[in-house]
């Protein structure tokens, strides 16, 4: 940009940027958007030779008109029509429960493949969070039997899950 253009653009900015910015904020209520409109208005003035050739004080009405047209174009734009304003940004994305549902069904089917004795011990230990002693008291069996059924029940559960395609 020649020095003469730079001087004229600086004069345009000094003379008109603040009033145009206030005008756009008055129209839109959007301070950040007003900065963009003022920038685009000044860019258009710089690209229009007749405006750059005029004295900076005689171009204010032209700049207000350009700024108003930019605001109207933005309001009419497809981007604006498709956007929905919200008071607060949405929460972070959450995954749906589909995978958890399929896992629950898979585990339920694998547990159904166990014998009733093994299933009772595994369910109480892992889903009921009971200790070996509590399971033994509840089922009225020795603690060693609980440990044995838990060991063999988990082996059978692992095998049933592997048969359904679940791998480590």
UniProtKB/TrEMBL annotation:
<dbReference type="InterPro" id="IPR013324">
    <property type="entry name" value="RNA_pol_sigma_r3/r4-like"/>
</dbReference>
<dbReference type="Pfam" id="PF04542">
    <property type="entry name" value="Sigma70_r2"/>
</dbReference>
<keyword id="KW-0805">Transcription regulation</keyword>
<dbReference type="InterPro" id="IPR007630">
    <property type="entry name" value="RNA_pol_sigma70_r4"/>
</dbReference>
<feature type="domain" description="RNA polymerase sigma-70 region 2">
    <location>
        <begin position="12"/>
        <end position="81"/>
    </location>
</feature>
<dbReference type="InterPro" id="IPR014284">
    <property type="entry name" value="RNA_pol_sigma-70_dom"/>
</dbReference>
<dbReference type="InterPro" id="IPR013325">
    <property type="entry name" value="RNA_pol_sigma_r2"/>
</dbReference>
<dbReference type="Pfam" id="PF04545">
    <property type="entry name" value="Sigma70_r4"/>
</dbReference>
<keyword id="KW-0804">Transcription</keyword>
<dbReference type="InterPro" id="IPR039425">
    <property type="entry name" value="RNA_pol_sigma-70-like"/>
</dbReference>
<keyword id="KW-0731">Sigma factor</keyword>
<protein>
    <submittedName>
        <fullName>Sigma-70 family RNA polymerase sigma factor</fullName>
    </submittedName>
</protein>
<keyword id="KW-0238">DNA-binding</keyword>
<dbReference type="InterPro" id="IPR007627">
    <property type="entry name" value="RNA_pol_sigma70_r2"/>
</dbReference>
<dbReference type="InterPro" id="IPR036388">
    <property type="entry name" value="WH-like_DNA-bd_sf"/>
</dbReference>
<feature type="domain" description="RNA polymerase sigma-70 region 4">
    <location>
        <begin position="110"/>
        <end position="158"/>
    </location>
</feature>
<comment type="similarity">
    <text>Belongs to the sigma-70 factor family. ECF subfamily.</text>
</comment>
